[in-house]
């Protein structure tokens, strides 16, 4: 039985640059840091970087929750991501969008005022 989202893994072609970029984006250091895998704990979920996985934006789409989608999107662009899908309202004040990280992966964000994460529910 599924228990909820646990990990999203992005392929990267330069793990050192990817570690530094995601550390800047997330404002935290990885909890697991090895040459074969780097893992960040982001609000109880894992964002993993894997140099053995081919980078690309064609895989499954995972949305990372943010408080302000517009501000988060602009910050990602300022940090070197490329615009892909501009922030837009999909109904019910839910705003989302996607950038392409410097390694070719789709990085999607969502501000959903109707969803709240509660420990023990996942």
Automatic annotation (TrEMBL):
VOC domain boundaries: 4-112
Pfam family, one: Glyoxalase
InterPro entries: Glyas_Bleomycin-R_OHBP_Dase, Glyas_Fos-R_dOase_dom, VOC_core
PROSITE patterns in the cross-refs: VOC
The protein's name in its UniProt record: VOC family protein
